[in-house]
Automatic annotation (TrEMBL):
InterPro entries in alphabetical order: Flavoprotein-like_sf, FMN_Rdtase-like_dom, NAD(P)H-dep_reductase
GO MF: FMN binding; oxidoreductase activity
Record Gene3D superfamilies: 3.40.50.360
Positions of the NADPH-dependent FMN reductase-like domain: 61-209
Protein name: NADPH-dependent FMN reductase-like domain-containing protein
Pfam families given in the database record: FMN_red
GO cellular component: cytosol
């Protein structure tokens, strides 16, 4: 049933995380030093729906390399916000699946023939996708750059859902490109979209230039100490801090 629903939405949900705190030796200390654990529900949006290689040769979708890297990093990451250990339960929305046959938004397409918030008659897959976004604590967009802007696969997924699904949650922007500019101009175009949806993009961003030269298909970097690799941890530090703060405030006073 669940796997059927996942196939319908076009998502993958994985729980990641490493506790930083060791095992306690007796009941007293375990009561006193009980670690606080926060699992952030983190939704990743991919952007490229590319399924073909250029006729002059070239690589398959480079976004998969970046996505593999980011997901592996999240699974190994051991982070703290204050005294809380933070882990991630990750859901990935891939436009190839979401807009493909049987996908959550196949009925409407990235061209938005039926925005989900225009109708009560929303297909089950789209409803489930909307619920996942609404329940998320943090958003991550992994985007290519199309003509200095956001590819339609990503803007199509974001546009389908109104601001009520995104508000009071932070977002992190990761761009990449086959060129040396790393897709950074797409990040500038993406910020107002996220703002308008009520999500606050954190100031640190990740830009990966010449992806095919830097990241292997597995998501591993060719050069472990490459300076561009370090951007991800810095962005996630901000994203997690904001997500924990907003989650706690929402639990106290709801969303506005
Ligand atoms: C329609 C289109 C527009 C593009 N525009 C840009 C651009 O403005 N800047 C850039 O650095 N690369 C641009 N590219 C090249 C992409 O960076 C490159 O195709 C990249 O591999 C796309 O990501 P993907 O491999 O995940 O599909 C463009 C590619 C396409 C198909």
């Amino acid at each position: 049933m669940w796997s059927n629903l996942c196939a319908l939405v076009g998502t993958l949900t994985i729980t990641f995380g490493v506790s930083l705190t060791g095992v306690h030796s007796n009941a007293f200390t375990s009561q006193k030093q009980q670690p606080k654990m926060t699992t952030l529900r983190t939704v990743i949006f991919l952007s490229s729906a590319r399924t073909s290689a250029p006729m002059w040769g070239g690589d398959a979708r480079l976004g998969d390399r970046v996505s593999n890297w980011v997901q592996a990093h999240l699974s190994e990451r051991a982070s703290k916000v204050g005294d809380e250990d933070v882990t991630h339960e990750v859901t990935v929305f891939d436009p190839i699946e979401v807009f493909g046959a049987g996908g959550a938004l196949a009925h409407s397409g990235a061209q938005m023939s039926t925005p989900t918030f225009f109708t009560k008659d929303v297909p089950e897959g789209a409803k489930a996708m909307g619920e996942k976004i609404e329940q998320a604590d943090a958003i991550i967009c992994i985007t290519a750059e199309y003509n200095h802007s956001v590819p339609p696969g990503l803007s199509g997924m974001l546009n389908h859902f109104g601001g009520s699904k995104f508000k009071c949650k932070p977002s992190g922007i990761i761009t990449y490109s086959s060129s040396p500019w790393g897709g950074s101009r797409a990040s500038i175009a993406l910020q107002p979209i996220l703002h308008e949806l009520g999500s606050l993009p954190v100031s640190r961003m990740v830009h990966v230039p010449s992806v095919a030269e830097l990241i292997k298909e597995s998501g591993e970097w060719e050069q472990e100490d490459h300076r561009m690799k370090g951007q991800l941890a810095g962005m996630l530090d901000q994203l997690e801090w904001m997500a924990v703060a907003m989650k706690s405030q929402k639990e106290k006073s709801g969303v506005f």
